[in-house]
Design a protein that fits this description.
Elements: H1 36-48, H2 60-67, H3 71-83, E1 87-90, E2 94-97, E3 102-105, H4 111-117, E4 122-133, H5 136-142, E5 149-159, E6 162-172, H6 188-194, E7 201-210, H7 213-219, E8 226-236, E9 239-249, E10 253-256
Parallel strand pairs: 3-10
Antiparallel strand pairs: 1-2, 4-5, 5-6, 6-9, 7-8, 8-9
């Protein structure tokens, strides 16, 4: 009798799909993803660190070739450094290491005092010094009559031999008699102290503007570049001693205004 062979039935094996589990890195193995424009920015920052003001920065073309990125990426990196005040663009010439800005606290002090406090060498070049008749604005500010005699002293103010501002100072002749008879002083406030009329308080008003052609030539900047205009009235007690109008390079100057909360609540007028 022949033997019948029964085929062996195999249980089907269910294959579970293989799911790859991503490798979890320990914190000390996580590498930050650095954006391209950040890489370019930090490369240029390190490259220009310690360079003299006015030194050329790498050109956009050089950076595009070095990093193999789009020009827009390079421009974004350079824009950030310009915004930080580390670089400055000169139209038609390129991008250069910027001069450090000078922060000036709003307080009643002379230009000479402010520059000396920052370790800079203050200097001035007189542009004009003459006796004039007070116009309506100057007369009102100095609390004198229109047409009264006033000293007008205009100077180009320098810091470490670089032009910083143009200053026009007006003083009543009755307050500083004989001011123009001798050689002009190195410091106006030192001369006022010698005459016992050193200002003890004052008020400043600040406006943003653009440089006119004659101002731009004196300040060594492009016509239409940003400037800060500061108008000051200074008093010795109740005596109006000085009225000045100063035009500062905005790319070299930062105005620092300390603030504090008033001791009593301020109630708006209704």
């Amino acid at each position: 009798m022949s033997e019948v062979m029964t085929p062996e039935v195999m249980s089907p094996q269910v294959m579970s799909p293989q799911v790859s589990t991503p490798e979890v890195s320990s914190p000390d193995r996580i590498l930050p993803i650095v954006l391209k424009h950040v890489q370019v920015r930090e490369y240029v920052r390190e490259l220009t660190s310690g360079a003299d003001p006015g030194s050329p920065a790498p050109s956009e073309r050089e950076l595009v070739q070095h990093f193999g990125v789009a020009r827009m990426t390079v421009r974004q990196a350079l824009d950030a450094l310009v915004g930080e005040g580390l670089l400055e663009r000169v139209p038609g010439r390129g991008t250069f290491v910027a001069r450090a800005k000078i922060d000036v606290q709003v307080r009643l002090s002379s230009y000479t005092e402010e520059m000396g406090r920052r370790g800079l060498k203050p200097d001035s070049r007189s542009l004009l010094a003459r006796m004039e008749s007070a116009g309506p604005g100057v007369a009102r500010a100095l609390e004198i009559n229109e047409g009264d005699r006033v000293v007008h002293w205009q100077r180009l103010r320098l810091a470490d031999d670089s032009p910083m501002c143009i200053e026009d100072a007006y003083l009543a002749d009755t307050v500083v008699p004989g001011f123009l008879d001798a050689s002009l002083p190195d410091s106006l406030y030192a001369e006022l102290k010698r005459r016992d009329v050193l200002p003890t308080w004052g008020e400043d008003s600040v406006d943003a503007d653009v440089a006119k052609s004659d101002e731009a030539a004196l300040l060594g900047m492009a016509e239409g570049a940003s400037v800060l205009r500061i108008a000051r009235r200074a008093f010795a007690g109740s005596l109006a001693v000085e009225v000045s109008r100063s035009t500062f390079r905005a790319d070299r100057y930062t105005l620092w205004v300390p603030l504090s909360r008033p001791n009593t609540p301020v109630t708006p007028n209704r």
